[in-house]
Amino acid sequence: MVMDPISPGSDPVLSPETQPSSPTPATDPYLPPPSLPSRYESQKRRDWHTFLQYLRNQRPPLALAACGGAHVIEFLRYLDQFGKTKVHVAGCAFFGRAGPPAPCACPLRQAWGSLDALIGRLRAAFEESGGRPEANPFAASAVRVYLREVRESQAKARGITYEKKKRKRTAEETGAEASAASSSSSLSSAMAISTGAAEGCSVDVPAGGSS
């Protein structure tokens, strides 16, 4: 028997006569519909794939197991070429001024808030992929120092102040705190969460990683 050729990448379509007969699975009305990944999970997955592609594009390619804090910092610097945040240099007339009235030739960089959120997602993705917390390159002290330097330099150059935002407490938490205070015990204050002040928390990166 001679079969019609099937073009590469295409799936053969079975006619009704050739399709195997199988019972249609019954839908359980009590089961919830499959949930879609959250925006955070989707972004984390994209960031992780971008980082792995960046490692593969190195010459020679770099294995994840050999990746350290210095490689993570190089990755963050690589991302600066795709940034959208104007960071004034020391010689610019708008250095240290928030909301400059005119354009200038200063470079565009990734905002500190975007990089800080990116590292948080990659740190979680590393451990979710089987990496040991003590070997997590995204949690290296050198990376924390680099992010702090970026925050301070951008705040100075852009004339803005990065502040930590406190988590809003619920009425139940507020009542518990008042009760604890009356009995000479105190509750811990709400955890301060770093946010990317005035900037979004997504990083613009190319799909193919490093060139």
TrEMBL record:
Residues 176-187 have a biased composition (Low complexity). Belongs to the plant homeotic and developmental regulators ALOG protein family. GO terms for biological process: mRNA transcription; response to light stimulus. GO terms for cellular component: nucleus. InterPro entries: ALOG (IPR040222), ALOG_dom (IPR006936). The keyword Iron-sulfur does not apply. One of its GO terms (molecular function) is DNA binding. It holds the Pfam family ALOG_dom. This is ALOG domain-containing protein. Residues 1-42, 161-187 are annotated as: Disordered. Keywords: Developmental protein, DNA-binding, Nucleus, Transcription, Transcription regulation. It comes from the Eukaryota. It comes from Zingiber officinale (Ginger). It is found in: Nucleus. Residues 39-166 form the ALOG domain. The keyword DNA damage does not apply.
